[in-house]
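Support request from a user on the community tier.

User writes: "When I paste my C-alpha cells into the form, the page sometimes reloads and wipes my input. The last time it worked, I copied everything first. Here is what I submitted, just in case something in the input itself triggers the reload:"
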C-alpha cells in the first residue's frame, strides 16, 4: 500500500513575502499514528491546509494514498478536525452531519445512518435533534471529531484535538484516537501537549521554519538527544534554534 501522505518539495510563499513552507518533504506510512510538533508559525497549519486543498502551495507535490491531493478521490480520503470549532449553528446536530456527508458524495440515507453511528460513538446520540447552542464546549469538540470521521477517511488529520478540554474529555479523545488507528485509520496529530504526542504516536516529526528538522519514534529521538522525554527533544531541536 502506498504511504498515506507523501509530500515533496512543498513551498508556500504568501503575498506579503512570508515563506511558511520552505521545500518541505514528508512521508507518513499507511496505518500509522503520526505526530507533528512545532511552534506557532512553523508551518503546521499551512501544511494541513495544503493537504486539504484549503491553501494553494506555491510549488511542490502532495499525494494521498498515491493520488494527487487535488483529485476528488483523494479529497474523499481525508478527514480534518480543525482546532477551531466551526460548526453550523442553525441545523440540528444530525442535520449538520448529513449535510457534511453530501460534500463527500454520501447518499442521504447512508449519511444519516453514519451520522447516527458516529454520534453514538462520541456520546452525542441524545443530542442528535438539538442544535449546537445546546452543547457544552466539550460536546462541540466531539461534534467536530464526528464530522471529520463521518465519511470514513483513510487519513484523519487532528489539529490540536484536545486544546482547551478537561482531563476527562482528553482521556476520551485519546481512547477514540487509539480506537480509530487500531481499526486502520492513519492519523496525523498536531499538538502543543508534548506528552500527548509521546503517549499516542508511533513516530514524531519536528517542524521548524517550514521544514521537517528531525523525526523518529519517541524512544529513538530521546536516545538521539540524550534526554528523558519528548519535551527534552523539543527543547534541543526547536527552542535552542529560536
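"...and here is what came back when it finally went through:"
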Amino acid at each position: 500500500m502506498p504511504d498515506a501522505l507523501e509530500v515533496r518539495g512543498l513551498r508556500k510563499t504568501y503575498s506579503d513575502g512570508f515563506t511558511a513552507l520552505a521545500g518541505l518533504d514528508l512521508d507518513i506510512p499507511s496505518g500509522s499514528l503520526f505526530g507533528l510538533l512545532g511552534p506557532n508559525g512553523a508551518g503546521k497549519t499551512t501544511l494541513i491546509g495544503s493537504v486539504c486543498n484549503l491553501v494553494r502551495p506555491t510549488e511542490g507535490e502532495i499525494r494521498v494514498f498515491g493520488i494527487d491531493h487535488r483529485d476528488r478521490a483523494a479529497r474523499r480520503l481525508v478527514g480534518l478536525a480543525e482546532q477551531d470549532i466551526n460548526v453550523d449553528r442553525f441545523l440540528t446536530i444530525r442535520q449538520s452531519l448529513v449535510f457534511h456527508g453530501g460534500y463527500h458524495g454520501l447518499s442521504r440515507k447512508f449519511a444519516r445512518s453514519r451520522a447516527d453511528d458516529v454520534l453514538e460513538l462520541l456520546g452525542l446520540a441524545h443530542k442528535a435533534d438539538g442544535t449546537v447552542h445546546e452543547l457544552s464546549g466539550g460536546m462541540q469538540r466531539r461534534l467536530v471529531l464526528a464530522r471529520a470521521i463521518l465519511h470514513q477517511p483513510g487519513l484523519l488529520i487532528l489539529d490540536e484535538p484536545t486544546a482547551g478540554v478537561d482531563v476527562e474529555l482528553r482521556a476520551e479523545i485519546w481512547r477514540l484516537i487509539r480506537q480509530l488507528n487500531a481499526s486502520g485509520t492513519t492519523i496525523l496529530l498536531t499538538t502543543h501537549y508534548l506528552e500527548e504526542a509521546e503517549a499516542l504516536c508511533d513516530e514524531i516529526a519536528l517542524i521548524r521554519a517550514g521544514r521537517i528538522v528531525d523525526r523518529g519514534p519517541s524512544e529513538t529521538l530521546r536516545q538521539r538527544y540524550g534526554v528523558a522525554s519528548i519535551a527534552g527533544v523539543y527543547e534541543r531541536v526547536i527552542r535552542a534554534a529560536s
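Agent notes: The reload is a front-end session timeout and is unrelated to the input. Residues 101 and 151 are 6 Å apart (CA to CA). Strands lie at 5-13, 19-28, 33-37, 59-64, 67-68, 78-81, 155-159, 186-190, 203-208, 211-216. Escalated to web team.
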